[in-house]
Design a protein that fits this description.
globular; 11 helices; about 30% helix; single chain; alpha/beta; 14 strands
Length: about 325
């Protein structure tokens, strides 16, 4: 069967899927989830076979890039089997977002299973601050995981930092120097208003991409690059380093006009936009029609009409979306 393409009402081609494999995580990052979380019961979670079926269907519909997300993907039992399966689909780009805590033992097996790239969350280089932000994470474990990923020979490793004013914004220069030393790319992300949190006021903590660029610019000139990763980040380079510096700016410079992605939650909801509740239940289709691949295919195609033109995130700290990021898939 020849591949078709997924196109929404606004002429955007959707060829990038972020597929959540679990809502669980061994960290409890303050911007991602509450300290005490209720996770999905097992029967509501897509099986590995169902996740692979969703991925295969998207690939048949022209998807070129899949990123596995969570929660933390590496806490999902059997994750290597799923990576191995999806890794056989001939994707142009196959990546995973991880907190890095399990990479010391998992980096090499993931690479051997066919994963091409890793996005590793790193919000602080101070062990005490790292613990406050993640609530349970150990910084050294993540730093060792980054080294393990480099040793495993991944084609691409990128650090992701959610910048919070008064929380970790003063560490931006140190994080840049760390990325330069390690020769890994780094992207700074504006915090997104997903889920009710109590640790900080998102409106007061918002540190815009322009502010972060100004901080970096005191030490290094950032040169715009036309490079497109197929995601929402805008990239810059430095004259004396191969490291790329990215900015994801859902508040200050939204990236909706070129949005090419959708998300599938681990309970099988196809989310057409990170900042809206527009979704379609793929789990019901998978389980009611397990032997009819056309039903899943047609459901995904028809869902493209629900993809909105843009999100409307507020920078005032109010919550537009009640689901936490761990439920959404990074």
């Amino acid at each position: 069967m020849a591949r078709s393409t997924l196109t929404d009402r606004f002429g955007r081609t959707v060829n990038y899927v972020r597929l959540s494999v679990t809502d669980r995580c061994d960290f409890r990052c303050v911007y991602c989830m509450a300290e005490e979380m209720t996770f999905l019961p097992r029967q509501q979670v897509l099986s590995l076979e169902e996740l692979a079926r969703v991925a295969r269907t998207f690939v048949d519909l022209g998807t070129e890039k899949i990123r596995l997300t969570g929660g933390e993907p590496l806490v999902r039992k059997g994750i290597l089997d799923l990576v191995r399966e999806i890794g056989s689909y001939g994707l142009r780009d196959f990546a995973m977002t991880t907190n890095g805590g399990k990479l010391t033992t998992m980096a090499e097996p993931l690479r051997q299973a066919g994963l091409k790239r890793l996005n590793i969350s790193l919000d602080s280089l101070d062990p005490d601050k790292f613990l406050r932000i993640t609530r349970t994470g150990k910084l050294q474990q993540v730093l060792d995981g980054i080294d393990a990923a480099k040793d495993a020979g991944f084609e691409g490793i990128k650090l992701n930092t959610v910048v919070m004013k008064g929380g970790n914004d003063e560490e931006v220069p140190e994080l840049i120097e760390f990325a330069r030393r390690k020769k890994v790319d780094i992207t700074f992300i504006e915090e997104m208003p997903l889920g009710e949190i109590s640790e900080h006021d998102r409106g007061e903590a918002l540190c815009t991409s322009d502010e972060v660029r100004e901080i970096i610019g005191r030490s290094h000139e950032l040169i715009p690059t036309p490079e497109d990763s197929g995601g929402p980040a805008r990239y810059f380079r430095m004259a004396d380093s191969p490291v790329k510096v990215g900015f994801i700016s859902p508040h200050s410079h939204n990236f909706c006009a070129t949005c090419n992605r959708v998300r599938v939650t681990v309970e099988g909801r196809l989310l057409l936009c990170l900042g809206n509740e527009h979704s379609v239940d793929l789990r019901e289709v998978l389980r009611r029609h397990p032997d009819n691949p056309d039903r899943l295919r047609d459901t995904i195609i028809n869902a493209m009409d629900l993809k909105p033109e843009r999100h409307h995130f507020s920078s005032e700290g109010d919550v537009q979306i009640l689901r936490f990021m761990n439920m959404t898939g990074g």
